[in-house]
Design brief:
The chain is an all-beta fold. The protein has no helices and 14 strands. The protein has a six-stranded mixed sheet, with no helix packed on it. Strand 1 and strand 2 form a beta hairpin. It starts with 7 loop residues before the first strand and ends with a strand.
């Protein structure tokens, strides 16, 4: 990866995904607490696999212009730096709240995954399906990578009466790709 070296760790991450009436990802809200592992931390780099989005930061900083990063396997990822409200000394934390609005031209895979290279202490993944487009089957899964990967573990998940499901990892995640996938 030609991504910048990590200068923070994630203490707590809560991701909330909303799918629209067409079954496409509509919005993704993240609440995140990061801790500086170096003096002078001034940004958090948000990386995704699509450029079909807009990032709005409600708390913690201002988004930069989008740019691309090339992974060691040749895949291109899209990044936006959230420039923090102020530089953090080592050991201090910042709260980030940001919303990603998607505008896909073609349907992406029927999954919501989160990849973790480094340790995240606590992680919540929550998903909401629009009542006009509810999956026939839903699973919590773990993959062995991001691209050209396969599922290494899965378990069925039932939606609640509001068409929502979640998974909370109290012990967090590290060197993992986890999330939900479904069939219509």
């Amino acid at each position: 990866f030609d991504a910048p070296q990590a200068r923070h760790r994630t203490v707590d991450l809560r991701d909330y995904y909303y799918l629209g009436p067409d079954g496409l990802p509509a919005q993704h809200r993240s609440d995140q607490v990061i801790e500086a592992t170096v003096n002078g931390l001034d940004r958090y780099t948000y990386m995704v696999d699509t450029n079909m989005l807009t990032l709005d930061v409600q708390t913690g900083g201002i988004p930069s212009a989008p740019y691309q990063l090339r992974a060691s396997d040749g895949n291109i990822y899209h990044a936006i730096d959230i420039m923090l409200d102020h530089q953090l000394p080592r050991g201090s934390t910042a709260v980030l709240n940001y919303t990603t609005t998607f505008r896909y031209e073609e349907p992406p895979p029927t999954e919501m995954r989160r990849a973790f290279r480094r340790k995240v202490d606590k992680f919540l993944l929550w998903i909401h399906f629009h009542p006009d487009m509810v999956p026939s089957r839903l699973w919590w899964a773990e993959w062995n990578g991001i691209t050209n990967s396969s599922i290494t573990h899965r378990e069925p998940v039932a939606l609640n009466s509001a068409n929502e499901a979640h998974r909370f990892l109290e012990g967090g995640a590290e060197h993992a790709v986890v999330g939900f996938y479904w069939e219509w």
